[in-house]
Amino acid sequence: MNTTNSQHSPSLLVALSLAALTAxxxxxxxxxxxxxxGGAALxxxxxAIIGNNSGSHxxxxxxxxxxVAGGLAGGAIGNALDHQRGxxxxxxxxxxxxxxxxxxxxxxxxxxxxxxxRARPERDVIWVDGYWIYESHGYSWIPGHxxxxxxRRMAFVAPHWQHRGGTYIYVRGYWH
Length: 176
Hints:
This protein has helices spanning 3-23, 30-53, 59-85, 92-95; strands at 96-101, 126-128, 131-135, 138-142, 145-147, 156-157, 160-164, 167-171, 174-175. By secondary structure, the chain is α+β, with helices and mostly antiparallel strands. The strands form four sheets. Strands 1-8-7 form a three-stranded antiparallel β-sheet. A two-stranded antiparallel sheet has the order 2-5.
C-alpha cells in the first residue's frame, strides 16, 4: 500500500469538493446558495454514515462525495427556485425577456391570501410583496416572502411590461 497517496487523497478530495461547491454559488440567487450549503451539509453527513458503514469504513471519503453531490443537487434545486421567483437579476437589462407583444395580457387579480408578515427572520433580508410573473404558459403568482438581496442591492423592482418602440417587452423582477 502506498501511504503517500492515501495521506494526500483526502486533502485533495476536500479541496476539490470545496472548489466544486463554491464555484456554483458565484453570482447566483439566495436560494441557490442556501440550497448548495444545506445540500452539502446533509450530503456530507449521509455520505459519512454510508462510508463508515461500508466494508471500507471510509467516512471521510463518503462525506466528501456526499457533500459534493448534495451541494450540487441543493444548488440546482435552489437555482430553479431563484429562476421561478425571478429574483436573481441585478439590472433591468438582465431581467428583460424576449416576450414582445402589441398589448400586454392583463394579469389576473391578486389572489385573496392572508399574508402574515412574520418578524424579520434575519437582519439582512428584505420583504418582497407578492407579484405575478409572466411565462410562456401565462401568469403565475409568487406570494410575498422574505429574501436576501444580492450584494449592494436594496430594492426589488417587481416584474412589469415596458413599452418600447411600438411593442411591450416583459421585464422580470430584479434587484436595484
